[in-house]
Amino acid sequence: MKEIPEHQDSPDETTVQPTPPDNMVEDTSIEDAQPSHEDSQSSLPPRIAARFYRPSSSRRKSSAASSRRNSISSMHSHHSHASNLSLHGGPQSNHIAQHLRRASIIEDRRALLADGAAHAEKVRLRERALAAQPAREKNLAEIVASCAEEVKRAKGIAESMKEKREAEGKKTSSMARDSSPRANKCLSPMPEAVEPISEDTAASRIQNSWRTHIRWKALKEFTELGLTIEKARDTSFEDVVTLLAQEKVLLSTAQILRICGLKEGESGSVNEMTAVRTFLSAFLILGHPTQVLSSKGGNGEQEQVGAAPSAPMCRDDLANPQLQELVAKAGDLLISFENVISRLTAFNNYTPPPRQLAPLSESYATFYNAFIAWKARDSNTLVDMMVLQFVELDAIWETVKDSTEEAVTASYRDGIRANQLKLMVRIKKLAGPVHGKRLISNAIKEARKARATKPTGDSRPRASVISSTPTPDLQELAKSEQTVEKHLQTMTPLTSAYADRTCR
After folding, report:
1. Above 90 in pLDDT, residue 125?
2. Residue 504: CB atoms within 10 Å
3. In angstroms, what CA-CA distances link 438 with 383, 442, 443, 476?
4. Distances (CA, A) of 296 to 293, 317, 383, 480
5. 3-class SS at 403?
6. How far apart, in whole angstroms, are the C-alpha atoms of residue 74 and residue 61?
7. Lowest mean pLDDT across 32-36, 60-64, 167-171, 337-341
8. What is the pLDDT of residue 109?
9. 58-62, 167-171, 298-302: range with lowest mean pLDDT
């Protein structure tokens, strides 16, 4: 707090003192502005003066904020303020001004502390982000390393295949150069006639040449498709699914699998097409594992019949060990397959070496078992959902059969029967005829038993004699079941809406 100059007069003296001449006003204006410190102290009792005034040695030193108030530029404002204080109460007004300055200083310090706290919070958040950065970089580095290993492995396989092909090409060209002198010698007139061969030998040679041509043609058609792991990864999921669903791709793959020793039934049979689709699903699993194995977006592979679409069927995350094993086995199968394809050359009449067929067969068997296990889990979930839809349709029929007119009831009955027939076909196709029929029967019995325990009133007025309306119970669906059995005999396991699902 700034001290009051001692040469200033008290307020009483200022009011009593007469006005000086004009030439003396400028000299005495500063001296008469405020009362002196000693006069102010003497005007108050000692106990009260001790509360407002302290010794000069214990007073606060001037700070950077107070130095501005003590500057020469603000001297006039200080003197005018002191004169106002002297006119309105003297030391008490001084105390109020001191209190206001102290409050201003406290507010400034509070603002500084708030700024410091905000800065400390920013520093803490920045340190936290910097601490989390190494973990994030570590995870990214692991992902990059794993991808780099896969790419390196694929490149190594491609390089080895390229080297083998170059070596075989050089060997073939050298053999052609060696055989050219012999051919020239053969062109010279032979003194002796060529020994005739039998018809069986000639037929055998012609058949071998024809089979070699067929194998070469199958290999050429499959190679022109460009179906590799890299292409499956670089192509979008929808394009890969469209490519694998083409009949040309299925036939070419079936021919090349027969050459590689993977035969499932007769040519063009249902078992062979099932094996081909299972094999092609390995490309889809390796190229787009997220879309195939973890369907969280709700693509809606199963078709809802007779009811509103429910929530999408949830699948396991890619962290599931079973799914990771399926992806690994798919990779082993395709690597073995590419190794066998690289050995098909004109030197061996496009016949795979026996040493490569055994690993390929083992890889296909392990992948097929893992794929069937994964697919069966989804099939069970799909069967349960369709059984629930079948029961809901039966509940709708039980609700409307006695509460509407006969024309409306007939319309409901026809629509419900048609939808139940479609559901029954799909349930029996996935779960089998016997097991599917048992599931439907048990579900309907339990649902009707549960509804029987909660009877509901009928609001329709009736006569004393109520005519019975036929209900489509299990006995009445005998004809529908016969139709279903006929459909099951003619339908293949992989048709219509389930072809894409089987490929996946």
Report:
1. yes
2. 23
3. 12, 6, 8, 16
4. 9, 9, 19, 36
5. coil
6. 19
7. 32-36
8. 94
9. 298-302
Calpha distance 386→393 (Å, rounded) = 11
Cα-based torsion angle of the residue sequence 207, 210, 216, 219 in order, rounded to the nearest 10 degrees: -80
Domain that holds residue 236: 210-374
Rounded Cα gap, residues 352 and 341, in angstroms: 8
Do 363 and 410 reside in the same domain of the chain?
Answer: no
Residues 258 and 357 in one domain: yes
Q: Which of 314, 341, 374 is the last residue of a domain?
A: 374
Regarding whether 339 and 227 lie in a shared domain, the answer is yes
Q: Say how far residue 412 (Cα) sits from the centre of its chain.
A: 42
The answer on 386 and 341 residing in a single domain is no
C-alpha dihedral (215, 220, 223, 224), degrees to nearest 10: -150
pLDDT at position 161: 92
> CA-to-CA distance for 237 and 8, rounded, in angstroms?
95
The reply to whether 121 falls in a domain is no
| Among candidate residues 312, 342, 374, the one where a domain is terminated | 374
- Return the residue matching tokens 């404002």: 77
pTM of the model: 0.41
Q: Which of 254, 246, 247 is nearest to 218 (CA)?
A: 254
- Confidence at 463, pLDDT banded by 50, 70, 90: very low
Confidence class of residue 226 from pLDDT cuts 50, 70 and 90? confident
Question: Would you say residue 218 lies in a domain?
Answer: yes
Question: Based on the structure, what is the number of domains in the chain?
Answer: 3
Annotate 345-374 with three-state secondary structure: CCCCCCCCCHHHHHHHHHHHHHHHHHHHHH
- The reported pLDDT for the residue numbered 91 is 67
Are the C-beta atoms of residues 424 and 436 closer than 8 Å to each other? yes
